[in-house]
Amino acid sequence: MTITRERIEEYLEALYKLREEGKQAKTTEIASRLKVSAASVTEMLKKLADSGYVKHESYRGVTLTEKGLKAARKITRKHRLLERFLHDILNIRGRDVHEQACKMEHALSEDAEKALCRLLSNPQNCPDDNKAIPPCDRPFADCEKCIGQEIMPLMDLRVGQKGIVALIRGGRGMIQRLTDMGLTPGTEIRILKSAPFHGPIEICVRGSNLAIGRGVAMKIFVEAKK
Amino acid sequence: MTKIVIALAGNANVGKSVLFNQLTGLHQHIGNWPGKTVERAEGTLHFKGHIIDVIDLPGIYSLSTFSTEELITRDYIAVEKPDVVINVVDASVLERNMFFTIQLLELETPLIMALNQVDLAKKKGIIVNHEKLEELLGIPVIPTIAIKGVGVHELLEKAIEVTKKARTRPAKIKYGREIEERIERIAALVRKLKIGYPARYVAIKLLEGDREIKEIVGEISSKTVSVAEKCAKEIEHIHGHACSTVIASERYNIANRIASKSQQLVVPETGLLEKLDEITIHKIWGYPIAVTVTFAMFFTIFSFGNFFSDILNVALRGVKPLVETVFGVGMSGTLIWGAIEGVIAGITIALPYIVPFYIILGVLEDSGYLPRIAFLMDNLMHEIGLHGKAFIPLILGYGCNVPACFGCRIMETHRERLMATFVTTLVPCAARTVIILGLAGKFLGIGWALALYGIDLLIIFVLGRIAFKVLPGGPTGLIMEMSSYRVPHLNTVAKQVWFRLEEFVYIAFPLMIAGSFAIKVLEVANLLEPIGKAMSPVTMTWLGLPAITGVVLIFGILRKELTLIMLAALTGTSNFAMILTKTQMIVFTLVTMFYIPCIATIVALVKELGWKNALYITLFEILFAVFLGGIAFRLLLLV
User: Fold this and answer.
1) B54: nearest Cα among B114, B103, B101
2) Are residues A207 and B64, on separate chains, in Cβ contact within 8 Å?
3) Are B189 and B44 in contact (CB under 8 A)?
4) Buried-most residue among B55, B257, B373, B397 (CB within 10 A)?
5) To 5 degrees, how large is the angle CA B500–CA B506–CA B511?
6) What is the SS3 assignment for B28?
7) CATH tag, B177-265
């Protein structure tokens, strides 16, 4: 049996969501979310590993690779943009929003995604659970002039890696507090430490060390430095 | 003699309070800002024929008024106009500190910079050229090492000099052209209005969308506000970021430019403190260290506490006979003894535990360990909807709930303060530990005592989670500075302990005295028994406890451990196995653990959260404890 792109994307989306929630990607958890048997999850994860989307780590279970993460962000973004579209423009409510978006996301082209983003004037959160919509991997400020740089949540950087602050999503108070501490757009951040059990991270910014909770770090988007 | 008012302003953890202590010595007064739950420290000193008042403003990072501390600082500087503001700056984090300096310059207040911790900065490989800094900022810059008193004298001399000369000549902080143009446009409008703040400052704040300034200006001229809003929109359009973010970025760019021009980077030394930092938040070793520190802290507190409590008890044993001989054993004698007993109880029970607790806490705080614990525990605290910082008051709660309630001030939003304070009142304080150990531990075995502790933790977790779900609003994430480890400044720690103790004594002692007196009145009026009887449907029928416990529980409102002491006094035996069955002991301990915050804690709740919230928490805990005790009673009968 060949696996469809659709299946892969469904899995990547589930893994991304688990990651966002700070939960371990257990086979049983994935199975219950995707409403499939544990056996088929195991089989699928193997295939995903073969194509370089995920890797098995003995103590952390399955995690997304860099390639996997990029693809997962993309499909999650499409999903959440579509949810906003269905909710805001078509006025659809309830579970239908999620289910429709689930089916439509796989068919959405890059250009359509861009257009959708523009139509909705670059929304930040999806309507049902208020999760942040991953930003497009182009410079966010001006949707017209895309050059194709990659922007990711601060949480996705490894310890020791550096990133440049691109944008912060969240309430005014939080943004203000972060900018006051020196996290203004264009600032370089270095990840110093990451607490275990999905705890906060410690970063170095403008010569001072800050502890940033995981939830906050998911809302700070950076351009990774090579 | 002339009088000069100096205000100390700066970021948190820059050695501001150490400098304050160096300046003012013992002549200090620590209170709260009027109507606010923010500490206000004030002191006086005499220097070369001047009387100098020093005000230690709260440690903050910005003047954007998202917190009460920021608002207080801004209003104080702009409205009360101190003669000089000393901006205390950590030389090792110059850029971040100067972000605040720039905002102080914008307030157009006479400013001096105390470039503090120059020694630590050097160890970190940062050498700051203070003359260059002085030239770039246009204000006097004095290098200091507050902890050793270095530079304090020069600082005072400079401060006096500044007050004599009309002004320093601070550098103009210039933003980008597109912003400057708009600032000028708005400032021109603001100049026509009569506002206490400098016009340029108001213009910048309007662009930033500052709520308070908008209101003030809006009342006089709504046109100015709408012009500012339009300008902000234009800037947003040019930069693609919120205007407040753009202005913050520009300020940081200026800070960065000045910092890089005036500092020189050399090879840092890695000392013991850096290694300590490495290991105390290590992903494996950090946890056992945190547990060890916590246990060592409790062990020390309880061994010291027991020791001194016994000594004080013996020492004060003569007071009762003395009272009886002077006032007799009649009604007045009994009532007076009631009041005095309150004082004695405070001295013998509360102080021996609270003093060592405050000392250890002060050392942990001043050394910089607490943020590390908060870092490690952040994830755990998120389970009950709080972030890592809430772990600190929670730990405080194990000593005494009163300072723990005050400790909840470190939480950022009202909602989080409410939740953290609520959870804190459930933490078994030293007094409750006395009951758990003295009743369950002694008569049922240490296993039961630990089990009850475990149940307490579980209940904290469950109720915390429920509060998290029930209260409107979302959680705030952790954003906290991890300042470097420091050797604690013992003088500062001692002062901190002293002032906390003072606060505690002021709140707790009058209540202990009044309460102890009130109960004696009930006793003299023969009302205790009827009250106990009136409570019997709850105590006897629902909880299955002896009738006497009703009275005892009333005593416990004063101080939790009184439940046990009074039980012994009223039944005439301290062998509780004679009067309580095993089941009753468990139920009794459970109920006393939760049934009401003690009276001092209730007062702390009122001070921190207002009457309404204090009442809700108190009522909830009474109902909850009764409910829990009844369920436990029935479950234990089944076993």
Assistant:
1) B114
2) no
3) no
4) B397
5) 130
6) strand
7) 1.10.287.1770
